[in-house]
Specification:
The protein has 152 residues and is an alpha+beta fold. It is 19% helix and 32% strand. It has two domains: 34 residues, no CATH class; 86 residues, Alpha-Beta Plaits, CATH 3.30.70.1060. The protein contains two helices and eight strands. A four-stranded antiparallel sheet has the order 1-2-4-3, with no helix packed on it. Strands 6-7-5-8 form a four-stranded antiparallel sheet. The N and C termini lie far apart (47 Å). The relative contact order is 0.17.
Amino acid sequence: MLTSGRVTCVRMQERFGGIGASPLLACPAGAIVVRRGPLPCKFLRMEFLVEIEVALPADLDEDRRSALVAAEFERGSALAQAGVLRAIWRVPGRLANRAIWSAADATALHEALVSLPLWPYMDVAVTPLARHPVASACRGLPAALGADPAAG
């Protein structure tokens, strides 16, 4: 185990050995970072799969609904620009989405989620993500997923 300030790196094999501190963050060379206090650098972040279902009340005034949806778009765009909302997909046929979010820890993710105007109407499921050994071989997703492939 290597210790540097308030952060401890341990090998991936030790991940389930009762380390007890959390959250776990990916770091280079097959290690994980266990957060013991404030993050020493802002680039250490966790990624989360966030599944959101929105259930607006049937009696919600149309003007209020439109205002909430517009405010949600603005806040979501701001979170995307800040690098918190990394990728998002709509679930066809439902007022729902699946997204990859990035945050320093679960508390920071929660703060971002509750900042969404539609938060009171959301059912949210969060899955923390860890680096997979095959990830370095994956090509990733194009920036304009879903855009017309003939356009670029």
